[in-house]
Amino acid sequence: MIFCGSMNGKLYAIKPDGTEEWSYTCAGEVRSSPVFGTNGKIYVGGGSNLYSINPDGTLDWWYPTAGAVWSSPALDADGNIVVGSSDKKVYAIRPDGTKYWSYTTADPITYSSPLIDEDGNVYIGTQGGYVYSLTAAGSFNWRYLTGGELESSPALSQSSRVLIGCDDRKVYCLDRDGDFQWSFEGYYSGFRSSPAVGGDGIIYCAAYDLYALDDNGAFQWAISFGNPSVLSSASVSVDGAVYIAGANGNLNKVCP
């Protein structure tokens, strides 16, 4: 089954043959991407709420926030659902729909989605340019100020460092203590898409061009698709091919 949200406020379940299995109408636009619990539930942001949807498309529960939930949820090791909201908060919601914890940041959280590491630490970016690290219990670890708005979601490099793209045309690399390691500056437009890391450790990040960097941030190559700033994040297949959607409406495959 294929699951996707829509600006019309619906979460769709689509069969492999392209026909609709079901849809659920949320109280606002669904800009968030759904994630799936081990219990079979589907978690997604819609309007200002976090939703839990049963596999048959019926409502399990919804949790309200005071802002738009465009951030996509992530699950911790205990199945808690972690998500950001434009009300400046990061929420952790238990699988039964009750709040585990929330943490208030300095700025709204728009499209940046949480990254959760093997120790349960949560990393997320804010509209004001801060990368936050929180503990598994929702306490403050550290924050790092970049030079622009963060719509990109963090990713872990092969060397287990935190990567994030920024609207200041840079990709930042921080260690787990929040210390700056390196940055790479691209051309023309900011990095609103999220970094992807291949099996060989190469980092792929897209702005106007798709860039390939090594684990230390050194430029490897770039390719332009001849279209405006790329908002889609790259996906790397097991054979190393890189897939990315362009603003020109094309799905592009790059074979490094």
Measured by DSSP, the beta-strand proportion falls in 35-45%
Number of helices: 0
Q: Find the structural class using helix and strand composition.
A: mainly beta
**Strands of the largest sheet, in order across it?**
4-5-6-7
The helix content is under 10%
CATH topology title of the domain at 157-256: Thrombin, subunit H
pLDDT averaged over residues? 93
Number of strands: 26
Which value, in Å, is the CA radius of gyration? 18 Å
Spans where pLDDT lies below 50 across 5 or more residues: none
Termini, distance in Å? 30 Å
- What is the CATH class of the domain at 157-256? Mainly Beta
Q: Secondary-structure element order, as H and E?
A: EEEEEEEEEEEEEEEEEEEEEEEEEE
Tell me about the largest β-sheet.
Answer: 4 strands, antiparallel
Second-tier CATH architecture of the domain at 157-256 = Beta Barrel
Write down the overall geometry: globular
